[in-house]
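Encode chain A's predicted structure.
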Amino acid sequence: MNKRVLRVLPALVMAGAFATPVSADVDSRTYIVPAISYVGADEDRLADDNVGLQLGFGKAVNDRWNMEFSLVGDILEQTDTDNKYEQAGVLIDGLFFFTRNPGFAPYAVIGAGAMNTSFAGDNNNTNPMANIGLGFFRQLTQGGTQLRFDARYRVDEDDRTVVGGETHERFEDWLVNIGLAIPFGAKPQPEPAPAPEPVAEAAPAPAPAPVVVDSDGDGVPDDQDACGGTPAGAKVDAKGCELDSDGDGVVDSKDSCPATAAGIKVDTKGCEIPEVVVLHGVNFVSGSDKLLPESLAVLDEVAASLLKHPNMVVEVAGYTDSTGSKAFNERLSYRRAKSVRSYLITKGVAPGNLVAKGYGPANPVASNSTAQGRAENRRVELHILSK
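Encoded structure for chain A:
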């Protein structure tokens, strides 16, 4: 690399760097770069490798280029003598970025300047200098401080320093630099987007007519219906609930005994609960206390009626016909009464409201001399002990 090339190189770098302006996406603040260098000395120097220092000032000039002005210096000691190369110089570099990614921004660097060399204390001269290399920036803080690392090939056109009795045309050294790029001032904020042109407001559209939804068709809108799902045709009050004309707790559409007197205890069909209720349809396997399947629907209705009256205390009374010994029939009737009581408890009736008793063949309601009479005597009754 001759001296003419070194003189033209900075002009070429400057021309490329300022070809286009910097965009708003690039941090254009001036930054300072304190760095340390590892200098791999040219073999012709007959000197050991050493550490140098660098202080740079830089700035982005467009989307691809940064320009930097740097002060550099190092001391290289000859291996077999006490002589030293004491070097200090200035550089103007152009850094060409392949990408501006904050996590990893690789670049190529090219630049030139001048290097003053003092050798053996009295041989002092200044010569052109140039360097070329590759490196990268990596952002470390939100404020914009970055790590900078590069490796450079440096040419010093020092043709007057005598080494070992010989004059050399130039020295070619390798440098590895690491430092921090610290920006000055606050990070620039992007310009706000221009306010949109005012648009004349369109006249508001007329409000749509409210949609009235009455899912069960009882004449009361859903948003006012306290009893959704009313059966079709049922009479309802203003809240959408079925009427209970006699106030017995059973709505008119399910009330088999309308006009029940006030205060009368009624079953799920709205009919008065008598003192003794025969549970027709509740039957057992012959000679056993096991309920037949068809009995369960009857007992479900009984449980629902008892749950309507949580203070009612009931005796579950079991009866048999006169066939067999009295002792056996009394035990069987008691076990059957207990089976009914247990089933009612599974349906939620309080155990304390149910008492099971077996009466065997006592209190027949028909003659035991006929099959039909004996069937009627095999029965379960509810005796209301307390309402």
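The radius of gyration is 54 Å.
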